Amino acid sequence: MINVVRKNLSGLGYICWGVALLSMIISLIFSELLKFPPCTLCWYQRVFMYPLVFILPIGLLSDDNKVSLYSLVLSFVGLVIALYHVLIYHGFIQEAFKVCTADLSCKTKQFELFGLISIPVMSLASFSIIFILSLIGVIYAKKD
Fold this sequence. Notes:
The protein is mainly alpha-helical. The chain has one domain: Up-down Bundle (Bromodomain-like), CATH 1.20.1550. It has 5 helices and 2 strands. Helix 2 packs antiparallel against helix 3 and helix 3 packs antiparallel against helix 4.
């Protein structure tokens, strides 16, 4: 099992890149084509997602052994911000820090698929996938 995972580590990296690329494209469709203005927390999440679109393929194509570590750090910070956003969005917690502006709240419901999947939930899912796959890459890279 371990040998199978080691042989497919670059495959995990390409999956991470695909998730990051798809996330970037979807966020740009929402903001630029559908004209949904991104809230402050959405902008912060973009700061950590968009670089992954460029860092991952460069690291993978140049055989950089630390590319999993780079994506792990970026996805962890994005994951924390996305989790905070989801908790605020669904009313589980109040804003501890006033990062959202009065004219565009981070609780604004602009899009929900099936009444469950919101933009913050999609971001949380993307960061979670990238974080978990990057963590697997870091763990197995250390065993080599």
